[in-house]
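G., before I forget:
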Amino acid sequence: MIRGSQLRSMLRESMRMTVEAIVQNKLRAILTLLGISIGVFSVIGVMTAIRTLETSIESGLNVFGTNTFLINKTPAIQFGPGSRSKYRNRKNIDYRQYELLKERAKLPILVSVVDSEQERSIRYKDKLVNKTVEISGGDENALRTLNTFVEDGRNLTQDDIQFSRNVCLLGGDVIDKLFPFEDPLGKVIQIKGLNYTVVGTIERKGELFGGSQDNFILIPITNYLQKFSDNRTSLGITVEAPSVEDYDKTQDEVIGIMRTIRKVPPEKENDFEVTSNTELLETFGAFTGGVKIFAFSVSVIALLVAGIGIMNIMLVSVTERIKEIGIRKAIGATRGHILTQFLTEAVFLSQFGGIVGVILGIAAGNLVAVVLNVSAVIPFDWAFYGLLVCSLIGIGFGSYPAWRAANLDPIESLRFE
Amino acid sequence: MPDLISLTNIKRYYDVGGEIVRALDGVDVKIKQNEYISIMGPSGSGKSTLMNMIGCLDTPTEGNYEFGGELVHEMDDDQLASIRNRKIGFVFQTFNLLPKATALRNVEVPLIYSNIPKEVRLEMANKALVSVGLGDRVDHKPNELSGGQRQRVAIARALVNNPSIILADEPTGNLDSKSGIEIMKILDELHSKGNTIILVTHEEDIANHANRIITIFDGRVKDDLINNNKMEVA
């Protein structure tokens, strides 16, 4: 029987022999490592990137605010191929439907409406915003549904909406362009040649996925519908439930009212989309799930190929060292000693390749984080699995060559030149 | 004194493409402790097979082999490895050192396989190298040493585990005559210190260092004689 201390010293010696063998064949070792590294790199890289995206999306998608859901003609986010034709024939959601919903729904604490258009020509005196700005039409609750606040001046009022006044609130980016040194309040700007008085400024929200959330101008929805909409315009209605407990009830009520307003026959599906944070996350989850499976398959294939590479290199290594194995056996190495030596070498090779792959993978994944300007995440669990799999590959694909080495005949091996 | 090695009716047959080759065909040899023996014979006589047999590298097809009370003919591969490690020191014609390891490391390897702690191991290996006059060459690799020095490393490696026998297969075959004499001198000294030495050679000059000469022919012992022309290295 081999005692624990003997096993330890045997492993230590195997380690030493392994390092010697690798140092003596640097190029070959590096080429073998490369296969493993690429396999591990691909899975860790994709997993880090996805984990990073997930984290930032979970915080970023809370743009709606809590207990809030959205009613739209078409889904808010679509990943992958979807039948656009299914949505094309739906009736638009117009301002009247919004008014009716607001009037009839009892449970929501807030029903708000918003729609936006991209607009180029926005100027104040001689200053021109030379990029597209989002013109959003909304009601007095629009800012709240966007999770932001009035910074200076005042919000839109019910009167602004009722009388379709030419007033506006400016987002941070627009202020930077038009009023670098002036107080924008009370000034008159031109949007598409029309005069709007600035009544307020909007608190900045910063960036999400590398895009600014402050590049917009808010005007009364009624005014927006007159000046900027066309027959394709379909409004988005935001509904906020009073609490988490009442969320489902509120959603049911609102869906019922919308069906009545839009005269959907009872047997038909909704002809509008209800989107909540949860649903967005689910949609995103389905998308990342696909990417994960793909990355996983790529890695499995890469690691399999790498494993075969390890086996190949170990077989070469055994053949090259037949004489050495013969000498070692002659002076007392048992089959166990030789087996341990070659297995250690295989595991060490694949493990080392795995570590390189993990480091590169995490670096690449975090590069995605830097590009998208979100905080980086290190997937420790995947790194652990990756290294575990590397050990298994080393043992799995190293076993046969090691077994062959261990069972070489000492006399034949000694004679081998 | 009991026999250290006892080979009784040893047969070793090989199957070469359906034809049976009788490399050893009934060999009886007894060896006592501190003997100095030469095994001679032309190539193909079975000399090498006998050496492999005595060295526990091979097991007989038939016959009994007892080594210090242990039944070698019944051993499996790992038991053979263990007895080689504990009881036998090999010296080969082609030295058979690990080419990329230092002299010290080469001598250390048998001790690794017998699980001797590192500090003890290094001390023993160092001592063995000093005893063959290579105390100043411990960090040299085989390709940095002369043939004679390489063979001395091999002898140090053979000695380091305090084996029962030293088995030297044509130890001077790859050396110039001067180095050959040096190596034979070391072996003679080892014998005089109490070691059992078995020399396998086809050179009479070398064989004459031994006290007893066994001649193998056609897989059998042809002669087993006390050497009357014993040659001493001056």
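The first helix of chain A runs from residue 4 to 24. Chain A has two domains: 4-59+283-415, 64-275.

More on Monday.
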